Amino acid sequence: MVSFKKLLSNEKKVVGIDIGSTSLKLVEISGSSEDYTLKKLAQIPMERDIIKNGLLEDPAAFTKTIKALFKTSRCKTKSVVTALPGHSVIVKKATFAAAEEEELYDQIIDEAAEYLPFDDLDNVVFDLHIIGENELSSAQVDIVIAAATKDIIKSYRDAFNKAGCKVVILDIDSFALETAYEENYEFEDSDVVILIHMGASITNINILKGGCSVLTRNILQGGDII
């Protein structure tokens, strides 16, 4: 999960792009974690079926929409922070014997078939986030595994590149929402909060305990059915 403070502490400016199935949104923020300044904010509609079930069906049209968004916002920053739609990502919680992060990566690779439901694992990129010690056993740790195929990641990166942008951070939409919550609200270790983001075609649900994700689900229904 991306740290918001680290984003703003970096001297290189970035702009955030939210990818929806019916619109693109842009936001640029400057300042420190104590004093944020909203510099740019813009949203433009996007034709349906350019993105379908998280897949980029019409990359040329998507690139064209990105260019139009930057033109509308008059934003000059071209380093982009964005997130993959939930349709295109597998997120799974798992428990492993306590180990260093590098060792956990190796264990996941060794047992990939159990945790990553893909036919061709050579075409998969995954990352993990250590939640912490398992409540039932101090010898184990709970982690969240997030994975997507290389071709999906490449399709989005290429579309942004052709629009004159560079994707410097590619997050997951439900975790991006978690970052926003952690930055804007105070919470105790015992607090349980459910974050719900409803888009046109998907609803992201992220359950947090003490500000840390313990369960995520993507429901493939959204505002379109209302």
Number of helices, where a helix is a run of at least 4 consecutive DSSP H or I residues: 6
Strand order in the largest sheet? 3-2-1-6-10
Largest sheet: 5 strands, mixed
Order of helices and strands: HEEEEEHEEHHEEHEHEEE
Radius of gyration: 18 Å
Morphology call = globular
Number of strands: 13
- Our estimate of the beta-strand percent is 35-45%
Q: What ranges have pLDDT less than 50 throughout 5 or more consecutive residues?
A: none
Would you tell me the overall average pLDDT?
Answer: 85
Please, could you describe this protein's structure?
The protein contains 6 helices and 13 strands. By secondary structure, it is of the alpha+beta class. A hairpin with a 4-residue loop joins strand 11 and strand 12. Helix 2 crosses helix 5.
Question: What topology emerges from the helices and strands here?
Answer:
Elements: H1 4-9, E1 15-19, E2 23-32, E3 35-45, E4 51-52, E5 55-56, H2 59-73, E6 79-84, E7 90-97, H3 101-110, H4 112-115, E8 124-133, E9 140-149, H5 150-162, E10 166-172, H6 173-184, E11 192-198, E12 203-209, E13 212-219
Parallel strand pairs: 1-6, 6-10
Antiparallel strand pairs: 1-2, 2-3, 4-5, 7-9, 8-9, 11-12, 12-13
